[in-house]
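Pair request: fold both.
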Amino acid sequence: MALFWCQDMRTKLVQEAYMAKQDDYVRITLRLPPGLHKDLVELAGPASLNAYIVLRLEEAVANERSMIATYGSEEPLPHPDGISAADLEAENLALSMEAFERRIRSAIAEALREVLGERNRK
């Protein structure tokens, strides 16, 4: 009887010292696409999938907090490729202008075809 009590106490002490308690975490259900799940399992290696996801999320939150501390919460966060917001806006404007020019050229060409077609018929 004493042997079982000692083993039980030792197990209880180890659990209290090293194992996480349910109250230390919030349990969630997470739906993942099968391909992402497979990639995460491979990347986790010998660690548990849960441990790997928690680690990556902690890293992402720390990086985001660092970016906000560096650039301020009012500033847009930098583009991952290092492109500034002004450069992105200029690029989008240039692309919009190119699309607008293509439409105008197409409309002019269509109008000219109609005018020339009408002249040729007369």
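--- second member of the pair ---
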Amino acid sequence: MPLKPDCEPDAEDVVRALRRMSVETGSLVCLGCGHEHNCSIHGCAIIRQAADLIERLNDFQHSQCAKLLAENGQLRAVITENDPNFFKRKCRLCGCDWNHPCNDHDFWVEDDLCSACASKQTEAAQ
């Protein structure tokens, strides 16, 4: 199946197209890249490497991101087990929560008070 010019192809389409092109070494598709000595009956070495790389990058199931996502789920489960309301907390002053903090280094000072608002209260009291 050829790539469609009017829409963005997915990685599998690109890999299939590259694999088809790779066996045309010596034809007009051949780029004369200087790596011709590594080409074989399996086709252009550069195109084969590009297809292999795209397949590896597109393999989410075995990626570092998938491992981190699974680890994140395990950590969230442990935190929720120890404090069932941890991810449901909202700051009583600004309304921020775990998923929408005031800033990147925000933390909970009390069950319903974030560190950003706590420091603002301290500054206002002085």
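Observation on the second member. The helical segments are 11-22, 45-58, 64-82, 115-125.
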